[in-house]
């Protein structure tokens, strides 16, 4: 960039921010009336290129930051700071042996099934035609997991599962078990997109004179500030479950927001989408989520289903060289125990029981292996092989 352009930009920034402060304070001032009206500078008879009623305003789920005690109160309402990736305060928990500090030796590749992430508020994706986020988002998570954790083999489905908040957890766990059994996967990652709404859609699609001037000014100086009202939130939740028991291993909600200034339909994941501040904030949020999900997956032992005939100690294991197994490897024998409900005949729970026996692999093929159980116990039921 020429020196003259840089000096010009440095001179414009202070004066532009001062003008923005005065302008927004004037445009945000609204006297108390029975029916509030728009500011005088805004056009009153304009319409959005889509149904504005179908683009809900952002709720309180959007992340905010507290104002420090050193700041003096302003006459105008406190605006949000520059867009950053923020973790949600929603409940986050982990079950089982997930909180390990390091598990670098766990190099066996665990299979992971990713479902689509349905939009809980579909209309919030209308602006920009971002409806494909329910497929692009899990795909991004899978790509990040492979890039950072090579011991993960993701499989993606186009279908989604019911939201955990809207369905019985026991029945949902049974659906997870059936899905994982059909796809031969150890883990299942589901989720949903909670919100993609714009806080002030008119600031992007129907800007008045002042708003249009400030939008262009902010885009020119490329400085994020609290007066830019073209904010858009993005919230999603992930739910990692064990495919054999259906139990939850990790569950967390992620929230962020960014500036959305495009007025045309670009689609989620397009180059134009990633060039926006909104797209960059989502990319950072997905990176954070994949890091935390990947850490939980790395802490899980490798588990594979085995086929055994009653009375025989030779078994067929549903995993092979593609998963990192080698001839001579030893795994522990566990049994799947199904416990029915005393009140609901269609509900049951599954737990794992250690049979204190070892499985030694004798023949290893790409997708399956043949092993021998060093136990004289009579085998009947469903069994699993678990890595140490």
Structure summary:
With 388 residues, the chain is α+β, with helices and mostly antiparallel strands. It is 26% helix and 25% strand. Helix 1 (3-28) packs antiparallel against helix 5 (209-221) and helix 2 (133-148) packs across helix 7 (277-299).
**Class from secondary-structure proportions:** alpha+beta
SSE string: HEEEHEHEHHEEHHEEEEEE
The largest sheet, given as strand count, sense and whether it forms a barrel, is: 7 strands, mixed
Q: Strand percentage, roughly?
A: 15-25%
Number of helices: 7
Chain-averaged pLDDT? 77
User: Using DSSP, what is the number of strands?
Assistant: 13
User: What overall form do the CA principal axes indicate?
Assistant: elongated
C-alpha Rg, in Å? 27 Å
Helical content stands at 25-40%
**For the terminal residues, how far apart are their CA atoms?**
58 Å
Low-confidence stretches: 23-98
Structural notes for this entry:
By secondary structure, this protein is α+β, with helices and mostly antiparallel strands. The chain is built from seven helices and 13 strands. The strands form two sheets. Strands 1, 2, 3, 4, 5, 6 and 7 form a seven-stranded mixed sheet that branches. It has a six-stranded antiparallel β-barrel with strand order 8-9-12-11-10-13. Strand 11 (348-364) and strand 12 form a beta hairpin.
List its salient traits.
alpha+beta; seven-stranded mixed β-sheet; 13 strands; 388 residues; 7 helices; six-stranded antiparallel beta barrel
């Amino acid at each position: 960039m020429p020196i003259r352009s840089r000096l010009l930009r440095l001179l414009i920034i202070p004066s532009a921010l001062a003008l923005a402060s005065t302008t927004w304070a004037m445009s945000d001032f609204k006297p108390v009336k029975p029916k509030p009206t728009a500011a005088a500078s805004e056009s009153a008879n304009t319409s959005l290129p889509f149904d504005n009623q179908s683009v809900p305003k952002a709720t309180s789920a959007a992340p905010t930051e507290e104002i420090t005690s050193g700041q003096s109160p302003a006459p105008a309402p406190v605006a949000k700071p520059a867009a950053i990736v923020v973790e949600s305060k929603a409940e986050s928990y982990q079950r089982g042996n997930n909180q390990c500090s390091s598990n670098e030796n766990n190099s066996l590749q665990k299979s992971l099934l990713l479902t689509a992430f349905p939009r809980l508020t579909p209309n919030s994706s209308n602006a920009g035609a971002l409806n494909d986020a329910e497929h692009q988002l899990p795909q991004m998570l899978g790509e990040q997991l492979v890039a950072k954790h090579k011991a993960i083999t993701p499989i993606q489905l186009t279908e989604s599962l019911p939201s955990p908040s809207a369905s019985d957890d026991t029945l949902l766990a049974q659906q997870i078990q059936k899905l994982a059994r059909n796809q031969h996967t150890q883990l299942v990652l589901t989720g949903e997109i909670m919100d993609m709404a714009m806080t002030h859609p008119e600031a992007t699609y129907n800007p008045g004179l002042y708003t249009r001037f400030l939008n262009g000014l902010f885009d020119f100086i490329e400085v994020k500030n609290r007066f830019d009202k073209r904010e858009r939130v993005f919230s999603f939740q992930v739910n990692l479950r064990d495919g054999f028991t259906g139990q939850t291993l990790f569950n967390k909600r992620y929230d962020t927001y960014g500036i959305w200034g495009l007025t045309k339909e670009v689609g989620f994941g397009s180059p134009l989408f990633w060039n926006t501040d909104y797209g960059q904030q989502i990319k950072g949020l997905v990176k954070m989520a994949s890091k935390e999900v990947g850490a939980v997956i790395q802490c899980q032992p490798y588990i594979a289903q085995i086929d055994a005939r009653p009375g025989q100690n030779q078994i067929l294991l549903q995993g092979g060289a593609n998963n990192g197994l080698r001839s001579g490897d030893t795994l522990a024998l566990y049994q799947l125990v199904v416990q029915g409900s005393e009140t609901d005949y269609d509900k049951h729970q599954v737990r794992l029981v250690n049979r204190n026996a070892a499985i030694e692999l004798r023949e290893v093929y790409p997708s399956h292996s043949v092993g021998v159980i060093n136990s004289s116990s009579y085998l009947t039921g469903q069994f699993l092989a678990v890595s140490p």
